[in-house]
Design a protein that fits this description.
Helix content: 10-25%
Shape: elongated
Mean pLDDT: 88
Largest sheet: 6 strands, mixed
Number of helices: 3
Strand content: 25-35%
Number of domains: 2
Number of strands: 8
Bound molecules: zinc ion
Order of helices and strands: EEEEEEHEEHH
Radius of gyration: 24 Å
Low-confidence stretches: none
Distance between the termini: 76 Å
Length: 180
C-alpha cells in the first residue's frame, strides 16, 4: 500500500498491518531466508505523521515467519516482535546526512524517493531487520553431522566426530599418570 504524503492529516494516520497485502519476504536462493514467508498474520500497525524533520513512522509488529534453522537447516516458525520509530526524509529536501542524524539519536532514518510512503516495503524491511543473525529452531538444536549430514536432533548417526584438542590430550595423559 502506497500512501501519498499529501493524504496524511496533521493529526496523523493510523494503518494496521491487516489492511495490507501479504508482504514479499523471500530471500535469495541458498540463504536461510529462501522461501521466507509469514506463518501468522502480522499484528499491530503504524502511525504516520508529518513532522518538521520528515515523515515519522511509529509502530509495532508481532508475527511469525517460516525460516530455515542456521544449524539443522530445517524450516521452522520464528516469532518476531518489533517496535520501531523511523523518520523518513524526502530525498529532494534531504539535508546532509550529519544534520539528519543530529537530534534523531534513537531513531532510524530513511529517505523517501517519491511523495509517497510504501507501507509494504516498510513492513518487510522491519521484519528483515528483526531477524536474528543465526535463527535457531530451538536453542539447543544439535545441527547436522558434518560427516554424514544426518540431523542430530533425530538421534545420533554413529559417526566418530570427537576431535580431541592436543593440549587437552596431554592433560588427560598427565592426569592418568598422576592417578597411577
Ligand atoms: Zn535446528
Ligand atoms: Zn554422521
Amino acid at each position: 500500500m502506497k500512501v501519498p504524503l499529501s493524504e496524511i492529516p496533521p493529526e496523523g494516520l493510523r494503518i494496521s498491518w491487516g489492511e495490507l497485502e501479504r508482504p514479499h519476504l523471500e530471500g535469495p536462493k541458498g540463504t536461510l531466508e529462501e522461501g521466507m514467508r509469514l506463518a501468522s498474520p502480522p499484528k499491530g500497525g503504524v502511525l504516520l505523521k508529518m513532522t518538521k524533520r520528515g515523515l515519522l513512522c511509529k509502530g509495532s509488529i508481532e508475527c511469525s515467519v517460516w525460516i530455515h534453522c542456521a544449524r539443522c537447516l530445517k524450516e521452522f516458525r520464528l516469532p518476531i516482535k518489533d517496535e520501531f520509530e523511523v523518520i523518513y526524509v524526502p530525498l529532494k529536501e534531504a539535508p546532509r546526512q550529519e544534520e539528519v542524524e543530529l537530534g534523531t539519536e534513537d531513531m532510524d532514518v530513511g529517505f523517501l524517493r517519491e511523495d509517497t510512503v510504501d507501507l509494504d516495503e516498510l513492513l518487510s524491511e522491519r521484519i528483515w531487520l528483526s531477524l536474528p543473525m543465526k535463527p535457531l529452531c530451538r536453542e539447543d538444536c544439535k545441527g547436522l553431522c558434518p560427516l554424514c549430514g544426518k540431523d542430530l536432533n533425530e538421534g545420533d548417526c554413529g559417526c566418530s566426530r570427537e576431535v580431541v584438542d592436543p593440549r587437552l590430550a596431554v592433560l588427560k595423559e598427565l592426569k592418568t599418570k598422576l592417578k597411577g
